[in-house]
Design brief:
It is built from six helices and 17 strands. By secondary structure, the protein is an alpha+beta fold. It has two domains: 201 residues, no CATH class; 166 residues, Jelly Rolls (Sandwich), CATH 2.60.120. Strands 8, 9, 10, 12, 13 and 16 form a six-stranded antiparallel sheet that branches. A four-stranded antiparallel sheet has the order 1-6-3-4, with no helix packed on it. It has a four-stranded mixed sheet with strand order 15-14-11-17, with no helix packed on it. Helix 1 packs antiparallel against helix 2. It is globular and about 75 Å long. It comes from Nocardioides szechwanensis.
Length: 384
């Protein structure tokens, strides 16, 4: 028997895409055609994420999904991290298994609810792999019974040295549903999935429009906060946040002491879409392993559109304004502003060589080699 005719299941998603396009096209921070085009590229990533969230997740058959990567950027995503999410059901037992790679940090977090345009999600539990019993061959296993309010388990595998550190493996399962087949497809089930995708799409755009207003944009422009606990973050993580506004002939010098009491330390800049900018073919982020540390133990970064001719250049890639964030993870002690925090100078780009106490120029060819290394590392490390 031949069955024909539309079920009309995609209508909610079609409407949501149209609504999302209006949000993107009329974003208040759009100033240039590049901003608008980046918005449409950002929209493609949001559509991709919404479909993945709706169709790849199954509460009866949990698995870790990678929703944030170079083709789907959100929430000032960390270029050094591979993110995994799994949805949870309260009261259910889960078994997480894996093999520890050689990344700088592997952390686990359980969240109540999700980030929204009104508030950040609440962290119910957070720890890194130092609390796991890891066997000599790198394998580990732990059991977690989802507590009241638990909605999502987030895993972050963070890389300090892109060239040498390798990813591990990770799975999650429900012992009570293992061995059972998946539910058969029904029109009602698919309708719900398209409705979930529609809500997720519009909600995620509204959320990340609002989120930086809670934190980054509460601070004066061209400043960075003292190192502090990351909102909704891990106990062993600190961050310094801010936003910049630079003219084409200006540069920002960010100086921060290298921290030897953490496995991971890094800086990144992002766009007004509150997302990472191209970290694959441009240098828009640097870890302490990638950066040059001066003889006095300080890393000095230059944020600018024009090339200052140094290794620690962070490219604004045409963005006169944007977000900034420094991160320290897997800390062994707390941080203070006087000993560990960043300082900022906004200067003329032409004056940078005279203002860096250990100015060491690199050639165009040497910088191109740095970019080539980034491309190879992203290809090896990232998944989508």
């Amino acid at each position: 028997m031949t069955v024909t005719g539309s079920l009309g299941l995609t209508k909610p998603l079609q409407d949501a895409i149209a609504e999302a396009e209006e949000l993107i096209a009329n974003a208040p921070f759009i100033r240039t055609e590049q901003d608008r085009l980046e918005g449409y590229d950002y929209l493609a990533g949001r559509i991709r994420m919404a479909m993945q969230m709706a169709f790849d997740y199954d509460l009866d058959r949990p698995l870790f999904i990678n929703p944030t990567h170079q083709f789907s950027r959100q929430g000032l995503d960390n270029p050094d991290a591979v993110y995994f999410n799994a949805y949870l059901r309260e009261g259910v037992e889960y078994v997480v298994r894996g093999c520890r790679g050689t990344s700088a940090d592997l952390s686990f977090q359980v969240m109540a609810g999700t980030y929204s345009a009104d508030s950040a999600a609440t962290s119910l539990m957070a720890f890194d792999d130092r609390e796991l019993d890891i066997a000599p061959d790198g394998t580990f296993e732990f059991t977690y019974v989802a507590e009241p309010g638990a909605k999502t388990m987030i895993v972050r595998e963070v890389f300090n040295d892109w060239d040498t550190e390798l990813r591990g493996t990770l799975t999650i399962e429900r012992p009570d549903t293992m061995g059972r087949p998946a539910k058969p497809l029904t029109a009602d089930l698919l309708r719900k999935k398209y409705e979930v995708a529609a809500r997720s799409l519009v909600g995620s755009i509204q959320t990340w429009f609002a989120f930086p207003q809670f934190f980054q944009y509460k601070e004066p422009v061209n400043t960075l906060t003292a190192p502090q606990s990351t909102p909704g973050g891990l106990a062993s993580q600190r961050s310094s946040i801010g936003h910049y506004e630079l003219a084409e002939d200006e540069a920002m010098i960010v100086s921060v002491p290298v921290c030897t009491d953490c496995s991971y330390q890094a800086i990144q800049i992002g766009s007004d879409w509150y997302a990472s900018t191209d970290y694959e073919t441009h240098q828009t982020s640097l870890t302490k392993a990638q950066a040059v540390t001066d003889p006095d133990g300080v890393m000095r970064f230059v944020i600018s559109e024009g090339n200052p001719g140094i290794a620690n250049w962070l490219e604004t890639t045409g963005h006169r304004t944007g977000s900034m964030m420094l991160r320290w993870q897997r800390l062994e002690r707390d941080l203070t502003q006087d000993a560990d925090g960043p300082t900022i100078q906004v200067v003329k780009l032409a004056d940078v060589p005279d203002l860096l106490p250990h100015f060491t120029p690199i050639t165009t060819e040497e910088y191109a080699e740095r970019i080539a290394a980034r491309q190879r590392s992203v290809a090896r490390r990232m998944i989508s």
